[in-house]
């Protein structure tokens, strides 16, 4: 179609050899496809061919593109929003930890770009979600990461989408994009790509690493120094020499293992350039341009290196600093970019030379240096060689001498992919039991036959700890695995197993349903079962949150145990909760003190902690919502109210003990004492002048007082009306009216790292016993009024026996309690 051709007119005149070979299958058929090709082969364009086919043949259906990292999702979203979607008039939604679109957007969209976790979460309840059942194409980017940490999730999604297709009798096309694979046939079998007469299959394309459109010249250098830091230091001079030899005047990416190494490496390259009497050789800017750029740079180390034409790029930089550096590098204003490995996945930067300075990184969990996955090294190498500019690319890989032969072999051999599903089988089996797909042991066995793990165990049994390939041995091995998995889930309180004669019935329990719905580990559910109790204090509630398994992976980097201990002392000095400083190297300890520092508004020791706090906050809301569900089911009001209070504290970044007016900007503790309560301020703000006058009295200048008044006028003012429903005994109608309703407004939570919608908990409980009769969560969306129906057999007209609580999930100080 001309409309499709126009998307590529400015980029190239013809497809490269790989794209040409796959064109017919992707664009003219609906066959499942597995494409293995080196990085830099134009695989994204291949995926677009399959997307165009779906637009042509299945209008109105949905396409899902799954990328294994948030950075890759963002790159795709940015590219397609400005290109493909804009020109073809298609709608796109992003589904990541940062964005959870509403149901209307998901139903109306054509293209969903998602991380594996998010799509796994929504597709678990596929039978009740129309938008999941209307998917006609799923594209898996970097499907060879099946063997990595998050591989099991990709494996489960592929298996589930094939299962959905079978159950709904609709075709769901699967397209997998990968680097060159050693065992592509197994992957193809699992994806439902049948063999042809030659044993290949029309949808299977597996190109060797050597067929790259831009050839790659690779140099592997060994360094013998035994210890990590001295070894890194000896690599800096050869790195500078490699730039001089291979990439004079052309862009260079230097990959290092840590944020600290970006600074050290850049400064050493500058030292060598100065010694060479060519200090500004990597800078392509006039002095006045450079001055303008430096004014906008926040990070001092980056400001220094940019003066010599070298940029830094890592997650510790502010978003604005990163955007400036990316722009300078892409426009060739600076020649060298020293970055951490995350950039290899997140940005499609063209470069001529890639230097990989060391192939290990410090693993905080293991407390030692470990090797990068070979997939990461291949991805870094793949950035070298720009299709529009270079006839070849160059990669220089600097490794520890003993590993030199390993890299020589594996960088040129196709990549073998194994499954790691067995390590986390409990969570995925629990999800299937909770959704009703699995109800006995035979169902679990049937579920396993859909997986890649099942294919590989037959091909490579020793890798999975199986001695023989005899059918009965494999069956026994799988049977034992299922037995152990179900036992773990039963011990954690997620499922119950009932033996009915020869049959074993499996039933999902509350903890199992909650952990599946909120996408939590079964171990976290077990923690809830053990720790949540009727009289749980706020501090205990907070400690359960911090102990969740979702924080097991929080990095405690080199020397951060000392920083954690210092931060703990500051937190306790500022009136925070006690912590045991001996645990300062524990990830959960770090989460605890970071949250308390966030409530106390203490400065964080290093910029890394700001990002770590953001990541911890990202997870916190669903963990607490799950805790609320568990406590509600038991009928316990105290832990529910403490969870809601904790939600408010996390949303506002403040202690509940402070005046709620301190969540407003510019308002100090001293000023807050001179102000009325927050509900009164919100009420006054209906009359702007009156509110402004009141706020000025606390000592704020007019401009700031006006800003505070404006925020007060946007906060929710709820009018709660209760009536008996249709005159029935035990049935209540609660009407919530927002007096100052404004359409399309988000919650005011400036310290929370994501855009937040406000929600309310409506709780009906016994006055004397604090037992919950009913709890409902409501949102106004784009309405000013919400009706909630509550059923409660104990509401029989005698006042004072029951109370109604209306609690915000975002704001401190705006909750209401009414006696009935």
UniProtKB/TrEMBL annotation:
PROSITE patterns assigned to the protein according to its UniProt record, in alphabetical order: HELICASE_ATP_BIND_1 (PS51192), HELICASE_CTER (PS51194)
SMART domains: DEXDc (SM00487), HELICc (SM00490), Sec63 (SM00973)
Record domain Helicase ATP-binding: where: 24-199
Assigned keywords, A-Z: ATP-binding, Helicase, Hydrolase, Nucleotide-binding
Protein origin, superkingdom: Eukaryota
One Gene Ontology CC term in the entry: nucleus
Coiled-coil zones: none
A GO term, aspect molecular function: helicase activity
Residue stretches making up the Helicase C-terminal domain: 235-445
InterPro entries attached to this UniProt entry: C2_domain_sf, DEAD/DEAH_box_helicase_dom, Hel308_SKI2-like, Helicase_ATP-bd, Helicase_C-like, Ig_E-set, P-loop_NTPase, Sec63-dom
Pfam families hit by this protein: DEAD (PF00270), Helicase_C (PF00271), Sec63 (PF02889), WHD_SNRNP200 (PF23445)
Name of the protein in question: Uncharacterized protein
Organism (species): Chloropicon primus
Organism lineage string: Eukaryota, Viridiplantae, Chlorophyta, Chloropicophyceae, Chloropicales
